[in-house]
């Protein structure tokens, strides 16, 4: 994990994004503190590269409405996330206080990123059915066990949640679920095939998962993996995955001609021209 034991800031991302033809980014929370949310928003205010922030608020706390109101006053605050994958309770997202907190998001026009692992998908499905008005996106295609080649239960659950029209999915985080720096491109195809068929291009968005992806692949390699897989699609369908989907979902302002957008766990690609 020593690759991550340093600061990664917009100035570090900019040359990598530029080389991949990406001109914008949405920063996504990593720590479960409201202070980090404000820090990311302050970074966004100072950087034209960051076009939006998915932050963290204490959805189970007494100050949830106060924190959401503060976020809503910041134009680049576009959504909220909790690191559900680290919660030991597989039904964490169904806790009464958590659901009650989530119900406030729609009022503030905020999206929700679902960071879950395969065994948490059944509870995530129950959750999204409870909140049909809330836009959700599944991060990292719910982290299937690619290194072990396991797909069956994950495929069944991801196909079920994809039937909910207000749920989208990020093509992100797959390299870190494979053998780090020893993965082969063909290992990912069956998983990407599943989410493409289940969600369609109009509900998929690419994510770099930078800098976490550096544990297993360079930024350029992650982008190339997606480019190779998406080459089978029409130009208009590719445009959805590279930008149209994320721009609609996060309600991002249009980018300048020739630009593109990126969004992740600290930065995921959203739009690519």
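Sequence proposed for the structure above (273 residues):
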């Amino acid at each position: 994990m020593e690759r991550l034991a340093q600061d990664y800031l917009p100035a570090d991302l900019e040359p990598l994004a530029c080389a991949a033809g990406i001109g914008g980014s949405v920063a996504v929370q990593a720590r479960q503190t409201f202070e980090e949310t404000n820090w990311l928003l302050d970074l966004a205010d100072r950087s034209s590269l960051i076009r939006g922030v998915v932050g963290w608020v204490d959805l189970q706390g007494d100050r949830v409405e106060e924190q959401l109101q503060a976020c809503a006053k910041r134009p680049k605050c576009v959504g909220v996330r909790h690191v559900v994958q680290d919660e030991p309770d597989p039904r964490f997202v169904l806790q009464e206080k958590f659901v009650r907190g989530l119900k406030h998001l729609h009022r503030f026009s905020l999206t929700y990123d679902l960071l879950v692992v395969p065994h948490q998908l059944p509870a995530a499905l129950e959750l999204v059915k409870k909140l049909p008005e809330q836009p959700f996106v599944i991060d990292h295609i719910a982290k299937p066990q690619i290194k072990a080649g396991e797909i069956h239960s994950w495929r069944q659950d991801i196909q079920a949640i994809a039937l909910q029209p207000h749920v989208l999915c990020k093509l992100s985080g797959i390299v870190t679920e494979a053998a780090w720096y020893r993965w082969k491109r063909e290992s990912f195809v069956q998983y990407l095939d599943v989410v493409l068929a289940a969600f369609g291009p109009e509900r998929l968005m690419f994510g770099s998962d930078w800098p976490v992806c550096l544990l297993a692949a360079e930024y350029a390699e992650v982008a190339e993996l997606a480019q190779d897989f998406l080459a089978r699609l029409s130009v208009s369908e590719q445009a959805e995955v590279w930008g149209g989907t994320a721009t609609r979902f996060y309600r991002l302002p249009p980018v300048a001609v020739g630009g593109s957008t990126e969004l992740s766990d600290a930065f995921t690609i959203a739009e690519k021209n």
